[in-house]
Amino acid sequence: MIKRLSRWFRGPQGFGTAGLRRHRISGAILIVGNWAGQRGVELDETGISVRAFDCLYKPFVNDRLMSNVGEPRARAVSDAFSREVTVQGEVTGATGLMAADVGVEITVANDVETFGGVNPGSLLLDEVTETQERAGWRSINMRLSSDPGVVAT
Question: How much is the pTM?
Answer without folding.
Answer: 0.75
